């Protein structure tokens, strides 16, 4: 009487790793993932690059606009134009009357900040560390420009 | 036998084939080696060159402003509009709009847009607004490139001071010419990748160098003083019928030029239309025989060398022979016994010749050199000339010139040289280097801004302080007793008139003269010195009747503008 072999409940399969199909699927999935990541990064680079390009063009446009505004300011403030305008408003050159006064002299006008630095920073976007000297006349005109009380036009 | 040979032949063929294949492989490997290793750098560079483009990044030329910051020259944008007709899609639709923006006839624009060539220029010098609109239209086949153009808002007023800039961005004459390298800066570059159509790819540049912006200049010139000088010069030219003229105003104590005007002038915005002779600045490049204003130098040399004093007497019989040439006075008269002071007030040529001959040729010419004649003043304006002064020992110098040079004949000077020399007398004998740039504003590639102030520079002592003071007193007498038309009520003016004959190839012109006046106010503490020169006035040949009143008109306005009180009040305040 021969003993029968027990029924095979489980078949043991040797550990040969995932099948080729699985490997290929994973590889393709990884490849697609890599491509997708590459695409996303490339797209972002492209998008940022375009944005930089647009901003640079905008910057250049603004720079051109600034230059044109500087030109317009220079034309509007040109000597002959101002002289004609002053004449049309009735301004006349006046001869000052000097009076002898008692008491101390006013402070040296060279300590007053002049319009050069201010104008430079206004028009050309930089500030000066150098103390600017100017005449009393400059100081007076800069005060006038700043909107302080000035005598009315004749 | 035959069965033995067959394998040998086959083996041989295989060998040949193997050799050929090996050789071919070797060639391929060799080529690959050459491409990948030997010529690697060169080929890589070639490939890079094909797909990259080096773009010059231009920079703005620095601006020029006056002492109060008013802009005198700046860069503006203009557009160059061109088209590639094969790429233009609807020429019939856009021609009208472009014609309107460019200010051209529609038919002309349409003809250009449909022309055969690959590229055609539609217009150049298109203004800012029109260019921006064209750019916004973004029409295929249309290119709109910005171009820098120099703009001078003050026009003729500063033409000779500033100079011009040509189409290639190079400056000529004036400040633009002298400071060209500084003003124009250094262009940078960007090496970028481009697609086959030539459009820049949106990646950061492969290489880049930022441009270094041009240095900006703040001049010592005051726009208001310049305007006063121009107005009064034009009045003078009109009133006295002069052909041309020059006014130079300087601060004698620092050498700063406050105004510099010459007429006729030109519009630097449209210099291509101007006559070529008008472009150089006459104050530095045009010389003239100064005539009697040169006597300031002769008298100063005589006093400083100890040869004369104001009270030294000389008997003037109306003629004096020097080196075989008879020198006569302007009125052809003898004035008897005169002092040196009288000789200067009456502007006597005989006295001038007496001083120069008494001083001696070596010493006399040494003084002329000390005052800067015959050399450049080195003012920062382009195309300066040294004038003309012959010296003893030169082949063309004759002994008679010691006499004629003493009253400003036979010696040619520029207005700049003359005012600098006269300033030395006003400035207690100290000769200052004239300068027109008061401050420079530089900005490097990193964007750091620096302001550099130009300090006054002393050249040398031309004469002693004592001599200068004595000369000033004598020149005050000249205005009070001689050149009365230069007097300004309330102020002591020191000055000297000049009436110079104009040399021609056949001697001096019989009637044409150049009238001049150089003077400074207040005499004891000069705040400004003015040189007026009127060429060929017809109303009067004399400088005392043409240039002197023009000086007074300018000086009177300057005293108001510069807030200089009358001497009496000023001296009382300073006590």
What report would you give on this structure?
- The complex is a heterodimer of chains A (154) and B (575).
- Chain A has 2 domains: 18-92; 112-146, no CATH class.
- Chain A contains 4 helices and no strands.
- Chain A has helices at 20-76, 79-88, 115-124, 136-145.
- In chain B, the strands form 7 sheets. In chain B, strands 2, 3, 4, 5, 10, 18 and 19 form a 7-stranded mixed β-sheet that branches.
- In chain B, α9 (223-240) packs antiparallel against α18 (543-561).
- Chain B is an alpha+beta fold and 575 residues long.
- In chain B, 46% of the residues are buried.
- Chain B folds into 2 domains: 59-186 and 208-219, Penicillin-binding protein 2a (Domain 2) (Alpha-Beta Complex), CATH 3.90.1310.10; 223-265 and 285-429 and 464-574, 3-Layer(aba) Sandwich (Beta-lactamase).
- Chains A and B meet through α1, α2, α3 and α4 of A and β3, α9, β18, β19 and α18 of B.
How many discrete structural domains of chain A? 2
The helical percent of chain B reads 25-40%
Largest sheet of chain B: 7 strands, mixed
Indicate the overall shape of chain B: elongated
CATH architecture grouping of the largest domain in chain B: 3-Layer(aba) Sandwich
Unreliable runs of chain A: 114-118, 124-154
**What's the number of extended β-strand segments of chain B?**
23
**Total helical elements of chain B:** 19
Strand % of chain B is 15-25%
Structural class of chain A: mainly alpha
